[in-house]
Design goal:
The chain is α/β, with parallel strands linked by helices. The chain is built from 14 helices and 7 strands. Strands 3-2-1-4-5-7-6 form a 7-stranded mixed sheet, with helices on both faces. The structure holds S-adenosylmethionine.
Length: 303
Amino acid sequence: MHTSVLLEESIRYLNLQEDSIIIDCTLGYGGHSSQILKKIPKGFLYAFDQDDQAIKNAKKRLEEAGFNFEIIKTNFKNIKEEMNKRKVKVNGILFDLGVSSPQLDEAERGFSFHKDAALDMRMNQNDQLKADEVVNNYSYEKLTKIFYRYGEEKYASSIAEAIVKYRENKRIVTTLELAEIIKNSVPEKYRKKGHPARKVFQAIRIEVNNELEVFETALKDALDLLKPKGRICVITFHSLEDRICKQIFNEVSKVPKELAKLPIIPEAYQPKFKVVANIVPCEEEILQNPRARSARLRVIEKM
Ligand SMILES: C[S@@+](CC[C@H](N)C(=O)[O-])C[C@H]1O[C@@H](n2cnc3c(N)ncnc32)[C@H](O)[C@@H]1O
């Protein structure tokens, strides 16, 4: 089961009315979407996900809450194209990024460094690139860059070196095999600060799913899909995603620095959006759901 993070807060900030048109970009197991549906009996929900298993489970859950929804099985990077086809603008858009608990729990998906499985990590099972390709075929330089950039891993180069050395004798086949190589390539005392494979697994997952680029494109496109007073709620789980969100929200909600001192800001440069919230989960939620520890919700509204 997946416990939705910042559920009450994100629903509240979406400011739902009974006829709201909403997009949930990350349907997952339908936790947010089913709550949204209950509040928009005369509205409509478009829910995106690229994971067949998630969609299968969420569909049943949504049908218990209402029938005014459409599930769109595609990467949310296609949000603009899909909504243009349907010719709709919306009152609210939600992104609840990352992987769901069931994706982590299903060993065969290869997301977890605790469970032995083939190196996969694809959110969309039809995609070509798997973790196996990254781990076994990327150069030392490329691996170092990915671990450093997407994992913010300070031992990026030692870990990449250990992987390349290991590959000289044998292909790396499983998640636990990779986790062990990582563990043995960092200093003893570093191993005590949480599992040493955590950041590297995050980095590989981001690379396999091209997560940062996809999110940046989709968030910019999402801004264009809002009706006036429409809102976007974004729940992120690490600083790289949050930085992208913060930068984009700042760009569209602030007067450019060069113009800020003018007595009158020309119409064309006046911000079209305002930031409404930037919050983290309360202590109680973190105690009940450790996955919420690194979460942050940012909300923006179209003026
Ligand atoms: C954290 S879960 C969402 C959980 C959901 N809000 C709930 O409460 O049940 C994130 C979901 O988004 C999906 N996802 C992540 N990136 C995606 C993308 N680029 N396009 C489509 N779906 C994506 C994942 O497959 C996963 O099912």
